[in-house]
Amino acid sequence: MFTKLKIFLPGENTRLIITAACIGLMAGLAIIVFRSAVDLVHELIFVQGYELLRIGEGGWRRYLLPLLPVTGAVLLIPLSLLFPGEVNGYSFTNFLRRVNLENGVIKARTIFIKIVSTALTIGTGNSAGVEGPIATIGGALGSQIGQQTRVSGSRMKVYIAAGCAGGSPVSSTPP
């Protein structure tokens, strides 16, 4: 009886495609949270700080403008102390090392750390890009799904790639 029902179950490749699509969708939602966090930090620290310090009035107050990015840098210090090596520097190279040399095992806290640290950095006017953190957040999400379902190393890389692709921005403007 079960053999007759087996023809209705999706095959291994179909399950992989469905799982990868779900990971991509979850990564896209995580990136919406990430971008919202960047906007929130920008509004709370940069915009409100600009108004609070009345920098727009000019004169000597314009010299207070560097305090806003410095505030973001100071807020990163506790994260840097709690998670050494995961906040500062070029963490995307560490991400690639984990994917290629450590079978794609990425800690769940990487998602939280990348969202918070990058939101603090970019939202306060400091210099950073979003592509690396987006790939790291999506890839870490794919890695978590792979770890929970205990897949092989090669399947884990597919899940991580699905997470990276799901988080990647799509340009809405023509080239």
TrEMBL record:
InterPro entries: Cl-channel_core (IPR014743), ClC (IPR001807), ClC-type_chloride_channel (IPR050368). It is a multi-pass membrane protein. Pfam families: Voltage_CLC. It is found in: Membrane. CDD domains: Voltage_gated_ClC (cd00400). Keywords: Chloride, Chloride channel, Ion channel, Ion transport, Membrane, Transmembrane, Transmembrane helix, Transport. The chain crosses the membrane at residues 16-34, 63-83. It comes from Desulfolithobacter dissulfuricans. This is Chloride channel protein. Its main location: membrane. GO terms for molecular function: chloride channel activity. GO terms for cellular component: chloride channel complex. The keyword Transmembrane helix applies.
